[in-house]
Amino acid sequence: MGSRLFISIALISFSALSAANDFGADSQAAFLSADQAFVADVWMDGEQATVAWQIAPGYYLYGHALAFELDGATLQASIPAGEPYRDEHFGDVSIYRDQLFVALPPEAARGTLTVHYQGCADAGLCYPPTQRSFTLPPP
Amino acid sequence: MKTWIVLLVIAVIAAAGGFALQQSMQAPDALPAQAALPSFSIADLGGEPVTPDDFPGKTVLINFWATWCPPCRDEIPELIALQDKYGEDHLQILGIALDDRARVAEYAARIGMNYPVLVVEGADGFDLMDAYGARIGGLPFNVMIHPDGRVALRHEGAVTGDEIESRLKLPTGM
Fold first, then answer.
1. ipTM here
2. 2.60.120.200, 2.60.40.1250, 3.40.50.2300, 3.10.180.10: which CATH number matches A34-136?
């Protein structure tokens, strides 16, 4: 009985203190890291490479920030139409939610692929332009 | 039964204590002492070095932003209004743009930013953000430092002018 009482007291006190600690200088919504919000991957189907992003709910990628390089040379990829978005600074742009698949041209079968992307959270946070590199074909 | 009554009494006491602690922590005066804050000296758009220490007696709000960040741009009109309202005696906003200098200069002139705009290109700006306590590495990121050196606000993501205003250290009656 004594140990149960002690555990109960400890849990109650911890809950009260945790609630109190939510206040103070830090005040912000919980945001995902960029790698959690935009999970990038690449796969090959024969000689066809496809870059895929899984985009967390409440987050989006900008179409105009997407870019692809193979061994440092720009690749012209076929980017699907996105959701139209009116941005005061960028003008009429496309954004992508949920998932995005970009098929790369046939020459992107071997080498170092670098993908550039940038996105934001609906709750009011933007991540800096990011780049990730992949070896093609994937190991 | 007796145990439950004891638990209930403890719960009420703990909740009251937690509430009292919460109230005290909401008051910026009562924030615990901070570890030494980083400082910096960064050139503004006119090439003059600016540091937070240039504004003794004022609350300093450091706003990390970029032109490629829509929520950052949404905040700026409110920051301009706050600088207008409190800038003479109580508040100094410093905008640190993690961006291309030419783009920032064009944007600042077009919008009429009325506080120093400092530019850091490359990763150094994000390192500075981290040093001020940023956890996500996204923008905007705001840090408010009272004249006594205490951090009154540390916020990743868009923040409203009302929240900034509520954390200002103002003389009674303002």
1. 0.77
2. 2.60.40.1250
